[in-house]
What we know:
The protein is 75% helix and 0% strand.
Amino acid sequence: xxxxxxxxxxxxxxxxxxxxxxxxxxxxxxxxxxxxxxxxxxxxxxxxxxxxxxxxxxxxxxxxxxxxxxxxxxxxxxxxxxxxxxxxxxxxxxxxxxxxxxxxxxxxxxxxxxxxxxxxxxxxxxxxxxxxxxxxxxxxxxxxxxxxxxxxxxxxxxxxxxxxxxxxxxxxxxxxxxxxxxxxxxxxxxxxxxx
Length: 195
């Protein structure tokens, strides 16, 4: 009687390294695939980089920065650095609050992937507005239009993220992100006195 041998199971494929540019730009043209690929992955490096970059861009858009630059470039750069760190901390707080609310609503996602990905998608979706705001007047039509579009896109991405990471139905995912995203939109994209 011939002896049959069972081949050993193939080793599990190692997950492909997720490069920053694929993550950041992929959120714009294939968000569902990127968020699925990022499931259970922490992206703290990309989150910190984007927060600091967007904080710097936001500072460059302010007349007060250029007024300070004319007096003392060193002090202006110090103010930019402080503002960027504040933006990083604020966005981490938003991500942590979103994760906590999702868990309260019955989600089962992990803290690090949820929070770090929230920060990345929050700033990645805001990059077009920040770029326009750096060169154009803050209350101009293109900047305000970009703010509206990117706010809606950011909310949609955040909903997809929470729905996938925490395995929540869409209405609970919307509830988990709505308060933080509305507050951020009101303070960052349409700040008081900008209109």
